[in-house]
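Running co-folding for 7-(2-hydroxyethyl)-8-mercaptoguanine.
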Amino acid sequence: MNHIAYISLGSNIGKREGYLEKAINILRSHGKIEVTKQSSIYETDPVGYTEQGKFLNMVIEVRTNLRPEKLLQQCLQVEIDLGREREFKWGPRIIDLDILLYNHENIEAENLLIPHPRMQERAFVLIPLIEIAPYVEHPILSTPFVEFLDEIPDKEGVRLWKQINGEDAFVHSES
Ligand code: GSY
């Protein structure tokens, strides 16, 4: 697997944790994707359209032989497999997968922008990303992501919900 990518996952409908787990398992079952790291799960206040439920968010690192367009297709397929319907753009969703980074590349395709355009402004992306990739730099701005954290206002809207690594492993669970 010769490419490394970071993917943000979010869910704010139904069994949110279950959807995150299922999404990761579907990715894992793909022969050309290896899930190499996963962040803790954070409960986060909705950003943008705020009249909706709280999200569970996390970030994973994958190693893959897929080019970015194929990786995007696979992410969309996961959303379809889990039954996501295209709701209105900023509204609630059972699962959302966004490719944040692909190697150190800057990709501007019609349906795919990498690095993800607003990733450095979103605490619900930055906090889990930094947990698993503390030294990674923004490919265009050449700034380590950890340095963006001081500048963003909504950090208190991101709360640790389930720690994945470490001793106090399970903070919350949804049955
Ligand atoms: O961009 C992903 C979907 N999304 C989210 C999200 O995942 N988490 C939070 N906290 N707010 C969000 N607003 C949108 S849209």
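Result summary
The chain has a mean pLDDT of 92.
The chain has four helices and eight strands.
Job closed.
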